[in-house]
Amino acid sequence: MTIRFSVVVLTYARDQILADTLTRLHDRLGARDDYELILVDNNAERGTRETLLDPFPHCQYLFSGFNKGVHARNDGFDAARGEFIVLLDDDVLVETPDMLDLFAARFDEDDRLGAITVRKHVRGETRRRVDLIPHTRKDVDLTQPFLTFRFVGGCVAFRTACLREVGGFLPDFFYGLEEIELSYRIIDAGWRIRYDPAISCEELEHPAGRDAKKRVQTQRLANKYIISYLRMPFPEVLVNAALFTPYLLMRQRGQASVTGAVRKFLDWRKRNDRPQRKAISRQTAAYIRACGGSVWK
Q1: Residue ranges of the Glycosyltransferase 2-like domain (predicted)?
Q2: Which of 29, 221, 263, 287 is paired with 296 by a 20 to 30 Å CA distance?
Q3: pTM of the full predicted structure?
């Protein structure tokens, strides 16, 4: 038996939803035994979550003992034994029974494909959610596959070799937009990202485990400043700094504190242990444009 896939699930304060997510995952994947489930537990107490792994033929339980934030997913990445890693949120329900086979087929077709982002919808939503579109153009046809330059969280597959090369999520981000920063490193290392609507999932966006909305949006804005500083080339970084804040405030209708976000960014800039700025190359910027994207966004 060879484990080809490692499914990594990070959980925090969502015990009932986690049970539903893992039950659905097991139902969709059936009796196959070529995958392992890795549960990364960010809760302070163990509880009975480990028993949820009993139906799975191969599993690992990694207990954090405190809420490390989204970069705790890296613990699952480090432990993964599969050729491919599927990152699944603890409130996302898989809809595609042959998901793993489709992921493998896409990776086999392109040896420089580093990540696959899937079609995702939110339960109860009827409007087009632009934040779920893995592109800077929000009018792209989501019924067709396309090469892109960023992935959306919830359910995403990685070639393990890609993550081993570029690294996982930065510990600088406790929550919010961490996918965009990792996407920059993936494409800057010469890997590609593909959107594939043949694989779909439903996100519940369960409020458990999340902070108050204004604090979340303020943190996301601060993270956007950090990501732009770290990865955007000149002069696009200046355009982004000038235009992104009013764009976000218009969309969120005041649900973020610009002052608070700037303060968080400046505090981060003062840290001695923060990553150094390494903007994407001009070749990477050209790749983004070839995908129909905008570098400054």
Answers
A1: 6-166
A2: 263
A3: 0.94
